[in-house]
Design brief:
single chain, alpha+beta, six-stranded mixed beta sheet, four-stranded antiparallel beta sheet, 35% helix
């Protein structure tokens, strides 16, 4: 028998196999690869689902499942799941807490089982923080370049003339972020290059050219006083629009409205920006009287605001960084040398005028070549005492037919304001017989080539002469004396008063002009006081010696913060022990600490002891009741 016998084998049912050609083989290979890839993806998804257990459902889900099942059985004519879900939602909204308790308890039990059996969650690595800031020197520079000569004179009259020499347009955000990570807000210092560099208002004056003396800037007070100004600037809860200020500054007038708009714009874009885009309307409180703007301690205000904003950034309360970051950047450039210990660079005051885009770009290039920030050496640059303006070039003619220069470069912005009378006065002050050594601190001689000149120091009165100081000092001791002078000016703490004088003069002024604006007390005897919901401070005056104290109050998220400060020169070593007690029912809170000295009201809350009082301790009208006791400093020893 043979397989080819037609009687035994039906050839029609034998499958015919065709040998694939090259094209079919290639298509088969591609399809095979796609099948393998898709199969691999499905396997990965399955493994992923197996690894991560689904999160438990909430109480609403358990209720809806049960309700929809019953609803579908009782309503066969229903259009489907959508109608049943809508009916479940309406029924859930009508249920009270007791009726929902059954499903809530079930969801809680399932959730507890899930937490006890689920593997520990591995946190994702946090991405590097990017610096977000509203500090924009470029915006202010654009406005400054369009000012007229009359407007520039108005800016100088207010004490902001240094901003006219601004040359920097952009911040170096990598440097600012590096500095923020090393900014100790409690100590007010930068911890870089293995050293701790303390920051003071004098540093702000040296870098930014803003005054570091005068009365404190207070941006608080009754809203009624600034109601008209808020309306004129269309101020909302968000603030004052920066674009509105730019439109006002584009006008050619240089009157009071221009001055107020310029300061608001400078504060909002460079000197004290916040985390918001708009300018804080609280700044209007110290811009009511524009004639007193030049009397404020802007250096202290800028530093206080910077410390406050950086502290909030460190605490995670805001994503954007407020404050004048340009000051930090330029202060680093001036305080850290990358050229070696023997290098010399001419002093230009303020430093703001010596750093343009070209200089900053070159400095950043050198930083990268050395390996990054912090590879330099900390230097100590001190401004020359007794100098109020930066035109410091001094020449003596007639010596061997040549000139002698201090090597200190003038600021071109201020140099053009020199009058003929000023030049004649300088010629008289710097004669051959007696040459002032204002530009050569802590030195009794100066070298010029092969020639040495012996100079005698001039003597001048203390800058606090008008407040009662009778000292006459030379330039080598003038700066040290003025930093510790007991006649340093103190400002009246009341918002509507512009009085500035020594602490003794301020005591007499307050007791005669504002006798009904504070509370008088006696040392070592507790005094019951009350602060209303909108009251931020209370002035206390001692009956024995007239010393002024301020009971400060601030509001935080969980309660009120209170502390006591003394109005006295910051350099004063006299401290007072005080006791604060707040009580409600059988509960009481107490703080015993020493007062810090400030020449006026405190802006914000500096790093010092305070008492945190929860809101539940407040009275029915939001008033805060305290018991204050201050001890005489002579009895502490």
């Amino acid at each position: 028998m043979s397989l080819t016998d037609p009687q035994l084998v039906d050839c029609s049912i034998i499958p015919v196999f065709q040998v694939p050609n090259e094209e079919d083989a290639s298509m088969l290979g591609v399809n095979g690869e796609e099948n393998v890839v898709s199969e691999g993806k499905r396997m990965k998804k399955k493994r992923k689902k197996q690894v991560s257990a689904p999160r438990p459902a909430c109480s609403w889900v358990y209720f809806s499942r049960e309700f929809i099942k019953e609803y579908s059985a009782s309503h066969p004519e229903s259009s489907g799941l959508k109608a049943a879900t809508k009916a479940a939602s309406d029924a859930w909204k009508l249920m009270n807490v007791e009726e929902k308790e059954k499903y809530t308890r079930r969801a809680r039990e399932v959730w507890d089982d899930y937490l006890s059996s689920a593997p520990a969650r591995i946190p994702k690595p946090r991405k590097q923080t990017k610096l977000v800031t509203r500090c924009s020197p470029g915006r202010l520079l654009n406005v400054v370049q369009r000012l007229t000569s009359e407007q520039k004179d108005a800016v100088k009259d207010m004490g902001f003339g240094s901003l006219l020499s601004l040359r920097c347009r952009t911040l170096r955000r990598s440097l600012c972020l590096w500095l923020l990570e090393r900014f100790n807000t409690a100590r007010r210092s930068l911890e870089i290059c293995g050293e701790r560099i303390h920051l003071s208002p004098k540093d702000v004056e040296h870098v930014m050219g803003l005054a570091a003396y005068g009365k404190d800037v207070v941006n608080s007070g009754p809203d009624d006083l600034i109601a008209d100004l808020r309306n004129s600037y269309n101020a909302t809860n968000r603030g004052i629009s920066v674009r509105l200020l730019e439109e006002r500054l584009a006008a050619p007038e240089a009157g009071e409205d221009f001055k107020r708009s310029f300061i608001l714009y400078a504060l909002g874009t460079l000197l004290s920006p916040t985390a918001r885009l708009d300018v804080s309307p609280s700044f209007l409180h110290f811009l009511i009287n524009m004639d007193a703007v030049h009397q404020y301690n802007w250096g202290k205000f800028l530093l206080d605001r910077l410390v406050r904003e950086v502290s909030r950034f460190h605490q995670g309360k805001q994503r954007a960084v407020g404050g004048c970051l340009l000051f930090l950047q330029l202060f680093y450039y001036e305080s850290v040398s990358i050229e070696g210990a023997g290098s010399f660079s001419p002093i230009v005051a303020p430093c703001l005028s010596s750093w343009g885009e070209e200089e900053i770009t070159e400095r950043e290039k050198r930083e990268r070549e050395l390996g990054g920030y912090g590879c330099g050496e900390v230097i100590r640059k001190k401004s020359c005492p007794g100098m109020e303006f930066p035109e410091y070039r001094v020449q003596v003619e007639g010596l061997s037919g040549g000139n002698m220069s201090t090597g200190i470069e003038p600021n071109p912005v201020f140099e053009q304001d020199m009058t003929q009378a000023d030049e004649e006065q300088m010629d008289r002050d710097f004669s051959m017989e007696e040459i002032s050594v204002a530009n050569f601190p802590k030195s009794k001689g100066m070298m010029c080539g092969d020639m040495e000149m012996i100079v005698e120091p001039d003597r001048t009165a203390c800058r606090n002469k008008e407040y009662g100081c009778s000292e006459t000092l030379d330039y080598m001791t003038k700066n040290d004396h003025e930093e510790t002078c007991l006649y340093a000016p103190c400002a009246c703490p009341l918002p509507n008063c512009d009085f500035v004088g020594s602490s003794e003069q301020l005591s007499l002024h307050f007791s005669s002009k504002h006798w009904d604006a504070g509370r008088r007390f006696r040392y070592n005897i507790p005094l019951a006081v009350s602060l209303g919901m909108n009251e931020q401070f209370l002035v206390l005056q001692a009956e024995e010696d007239g010393v002024l104290f301020i009971l400060n109050k601030g509001v935080e998220t969980i309660g009120n913060i209170v502390m006591v400060t003394c109005i006295a020169p910051s350099s004063s070593k006299e401290n007072f022990l005080y006791d604060l007690v707040s009580g409600k029912g059988i509960s009481s809170l107490r703080l015993k600490s020493l007062t810090d000295n400030f020449p006026g009201r405190v802006e914000g809350f500096p790093p010092m002891d305070f008492l945190l009082i929860p809101f539940r301790f407040l009275g029915p009208s939001g008033e805060l009741k305290l018991e204050v006791c201050i001890w005489n400093s002579t009895e502490l020893g």
